[in-house]
Amino acid sequence: MSGLPPKSSVKRWLVTTNHKDIGILYLLTSLFFLIGAGVLALLIRVQWLPGGSVLTGAEYNQVVTAHGLLMVFWFLSPFAFAFANYFVPLQIGAEDLAFPRLNAMSYWLYLFSGLAMVTSFFQGGTHQGGWTLYAPLNVPAFVPRVAEIGETTAVIGLALFVTSVTLGSVNFLTTIYRMRADGLRMRDVPLFSLSILLTVWMMLFAFAALLAASILLGSDHLLGTQYFLSESGGSLLWTHLFWFFGHPEVYIVFFPALGALAEIVQTFSGRRLVGRKWFIIAMALVTIQSFIVWMHHMFLTAINLPIKTVFMVTTIGISLPFDLMVFALIYTMIKGKVRWTTPFLFALGALLFFIIGGITGVFLGAIVLDYQFRGTYWVVAHFHYVMASGAVALIGALYYWYPKMTGKMYNQFLGKAHFVLAFIGFNMLYFPMFIVWETPRRYSDYSSQVVWEVPFTDFAIVDAGFTVFHQIATVGAFLFAASFLIMFYNLVKSLYSDRTVEESPWAYTGSAEWATDSPPPLENFPGKPTFANGRLNFLTGTEATDGGVEVMEADRSEPATDGGVASQVEELPDHSHDADHASWWPLLLSAGLLVTALGLSGLEQSYVLWPFVLSVPVFVAAVGVVGARRYVASNPEVSGSTTTHKLLVLGSVPLLAGLLAAFHAQHGIVDGFTEANRYFFVALGGLVYTVYAFVAMGYESFEVPEPELNEAWPFEGVTNTKLGMWLFLGSDIILFGALVGSYVFIRFQSGWQDWWHDAGLPEAAHQVLPGLINTYLLLASSFTVVLALAYARRGHKRGTMTFLGLTFLGALGFLANKAYEWNEFINHEGWTQTSDVMGSTFFLSTGIHAAHVIIGMVIVVFLFSRASEGAYWGEDEDAHTIEYFGLYWHFVDIVWLFLFPMFYIL
Amino acid sequence: MSSIRLYTVVFVALSALTTVQFALESILLDELYGFTMAVILTISTVKAGAVGAWYMHLIDEPRAITYIVIAGALGVVALTAGAAYSVT
Predict the structure, then answer these.
(1) Which residue among A98, A283, A866, B64 is least packed, with the fewest CB closer than 10 Å?
(2) Residue B29 near chain A (CB below 8 Å)
(3) Are residues B77 and B40 in the same domain?
(4) What's the rounded Cα separation, in Å, for the pair A482 and A167?
């Protein structure tokens, strides 16, 4: 599907894969979640008004938890990635992201994961244990029975969100590394895009740890494993996994804001950032350091003093590069001539917030001070200053880039009024919390006198005086919230005004997005951007003036020719009209995953989830009907895989209808919701449809021309797809590593060599042989995959099919052996994943691995089928498919090479 | 060496190393647990490296691809070693 409907059409926003459209979708959706999470914040403040007890204790806990989760995950990062989506390709001179359909899928998974989170409120209640989801309050044994489904939905929603983030990380990394315009060296990439590059590096690895934590937690909920209930450090394991993700997350949230801040300061100071090179080095240093500071969040746990000391040092150490960055920004302002526009005011405000948030954070990095401050409002004030610094900088970015995105200028006075009100409101809200820092966190009711014991003494402070400060904070909260009403009014009204802007409304802008129309056209630029001669030029492959090619200058005021590059440009292919920009499958596939997730959430219980669940397939079916009709109408002559795609599109409608009919026929949607098996059918139906949509997406003809004449250091010589695959595997190393690491941690805590003695499995039943046989089988299947690739490259169809077939048989043998082994354990020895933590780690680790083997087998069937049609011969792009699959399969093999000694030998 | 011959040699080596791991478990693990464990895990690392280098063709790819893998592996080591040491 190639045609992209006009922006006025609703369909466009459902099928678009264009980065600018996706950026706008991210922007609107993240603002939607900002409003939702902001209202929850106001509820928290209202709760503390005198006599204002509007929530029960349990409701208050849910509101606090959901406020944190929604703000951090579903507002802040996606808000930043609205700008990343819109402006990174523009800044690096690319036409789109490397994988446009994957980008659309990231967005839909983000939206649906957020809806799942919101839905959890209405399933008996969402999580109540705070945004950190600390164990053991996150496991079923400590969750109110009525809220079990909601809790599980929240966890699965988080896992969906992480999936979205991982896809996005792979996409942005591939794009920035391999799709920069000719001559744009990595060091010259604009600071916002560089900050996104470092952000997605952190995302790639940090979110994999969160995914591992979510999988283990989901397993504790759905499969009855005992990871976080384990007496062998279960609670501590969660904090390790969570904060290994959680601390980089602080910089993941803040770095895009820092990049935007640097751009804004440069533009409105009218000069290049002072110490730009060192600023970049400092950011890169923080990116690495962010992974070795996580235990400073755990100073009050049972970890030993030497490790606390090490992490105190690394924590203080990470503040140093930030000092450099702050001074670089301040000095740039001093050296330049500042223009006090709305974006600049927000950037300055953000910098002030960050300085306050950063300095107060250093206090928490010191072990002794943290013993005092932990669990108080000092922490609340500190992290809100840091987080709000990011949010405020990004609001500045919205004011900075709004004219580019819309082609309209807003009212500057209202923008500044927004800033003044927000600045006063925010400081009224959070600064008093530093003053009354002794206030304990997480209380739902301060109406009675607060009793706060003075540590190490017999004294207790009975202090109602805190109330005044908290009431000031509440007034500040409402002022802060009100300021956003001004922003919404200003921006929406300006959208329909006649204050149009050309390329750039600001003086001294330096990056490529300002050298094209506002808003930019679908292909972004009037020609192929190049920095080959040190400045931005556009090459067009069509209008030759002297037998060469016309080259237009960046400001496009006086198009000029440059015979010097003509010979280079004669070869310039013009793919712009070949690229596809629309596909239904990202939406449909994501919807399938949502249905699966919602089905999984209630496998233990049944609840009033059905209207929501059913609305999704109805919606999907509706768009499927429209999409299929349009597709057939616009593609009269289709053949090969496109014919298959057409059939899949058409087939999706009866499949969805069949699923709906089955639900209605068996259960109805009005009453009788007492059996858990309905959730099973939803999960099963969702899974079937997800697999189906995945295959259909694979068959869809979707052209994304690999750019030529571009900078690809340091990944020259590999395709975008191969780099994307390797990045995905890099993330998977952390995912599996965290799963195995969790096992190592619990076993270590439990006593390494006593592990199997303590298990509910007779030692005689714990044999090496099944693992050994499976190791041989998997190694053999890896061998047959590379042979299939070698024969495909030689154009040997029969050899290719034979070795693909043997790969399938090797995997089948692996699963059969595993099934026999599991049958012995479960049915003869009575040892399961619920028996003890040994069983939990064994069955889940090897089970997740087996699931990867099964996924691989599905793909092998797909490859075998296509190979039988004559695909994958020679050295063309299609032939690489077996190689890409091989990367996945060998990785699954490598994981087993570690599972074998860990679970069978040692 | 043709690619098929190379792949075959790697497969034979991987299978042989697996057999060595099994033999070590049978002969030495009970007597010298720590040492044997270290050797067995080192062999697994070598096997993983061989699969990565030749079956996944890391040896022929730009070195930066190998750095991605190393970065992921370092993350795992930091998390596992840091967490395990924290409870000693």
Answers:
(1) B64
(2) yes
(3) no
(4) 36
Q: In terms of residue numbers, what domain contains B1? A: 1-57
Percent of chain A whose predicted confidence (pLDDT) is above 90: 67
The contacts of residue A109 (CB under 8 Å, 6+ apart) are A160, A161, A163, A164, A167, A590, A593
Per-residue pLDDT, averaged over A619-636, amounts to 56
Whether B66 and B44 share a structural domain: no
> Which chain B residue lies closest to A899 (C-alpha atoms)?
B44
- Regarding whether B40 and B27 lie in a shared domain, the answer is yes
CA–CA distance, A1 with A632 (Å, rounded to integer): 10
Nearest 5°: the CA angle A199, A202, A203 is 85
Mutation for B interface: A242, A296, A894, most B CBs within 10 A: A894
pLDDT confidence of residue A876: 65
Query: In the structure, how many helices (H) and strands (E) does chain B have?
Result: 3, 0
Which phi and psi (to 5°) does residue A574 adopt? -110, 95
C-alpha distance across the termini of chain B, in Å? 49
Give me the amino acid identity at A737: G
Alpha-carbon separation of residue A363 from A128, A327, A358, A371, A374 (angstroms):
28, 20, 9, 10, 11
Per-residue confidence (pLDDT) for residue A663, from 0 to 100: 58
List residues bridging with A341 in a β-sheet.
none
Residues B34 and B6 in one domain: yes
Task: Give yes or no: residues B39 and B16 share one domain.
Answer: yes
> What is the per-residue pLDDT for A449?
57
Indicate if B17 and B32 belong to the same structural domain. yes
Q: Which of B22, B62, B86 sits opposite A768 (nearest CB)?
A: B22
Mean pLDDT of A234-254: 96
Residues of B in contact with A790 (CB under 8 A): 3-4, 7
The domain total for chain B is 2
Q: Please give the helix or strand (H or E) that residue A586 lies within, else none.
A: helix A585-601
pLDDT the model gives residue A133: 95
Taking every pair of Cα atoms in chain A, the longest distance, rounded to a whole number of angstroms, is 91
Task: Write the pLDDT tens digit of every residue in A715-729.
Answer: 998 999 999 999 999
CA-to-CA separations, A220 to A153, A248, A734, A737, in angstroms, rounded: 13, 25, 20, 19
**Which residues of chain B fall short of a pLDDT of 50?**
1
Where is pLDDT greater, at A762 or A375? Answer: A375
Q: Are residues B53 and B12 in the same domain?
A: yes
- For an interface test with A, the pick among B6, B7, B22, B79 (most A C-beta atoms closer than 10 Å) comes out as B79
Residues B13 and B37 in one domain: yes
Taking an 8 Å cut-off on Cβ atoms, the answer to whether B82 and A302 are in contact is no
- pLDDT tens-place string over residues A106-116: 999 999 999 99
Arithmetic mean of pLDDT, A690-698: 81
How many CB contacts within 8 angstroms connect chain A with chain B?
161
CA-CA distance, A836 to A855, in Å (whole number)? Answer: 28
Residue A754: CB atoms within 10 Å: 10
Q: Does B80 touch chain A (CB under 8 A)?
A: yes
pLDDT band at A273 (very low <50, low <70, confident <90, very high): very high
Residue tagged 């049944």 (tokens): A606
Using left for φ > 0, alpha for ψ between -120 and 50, and beta otherwise, residue A442 falls in left
Measured distance CA(A578)–CA(A576) in Å, rounded: 5
Give pLDDT, residue A545.
37
- Token reading at A34: 């900002």
Residue A558 has pLDDT above 50, yes or no: no
Q: Bridge partners of A799?
A: none
How near does any CA of chain B get to the CA of A898, in Å? 6
DSSP state letters, A118-129: HHHTTTT----S
**Start-end of H helices in A48-76:** 57-69
Rounded Cα–Cα distance for residues A832 and A829 (Å)? 9
Tokens of B52: 């990565």
Contact residues, chain B, for A236 at CB < 8 Å:
83, 86-87
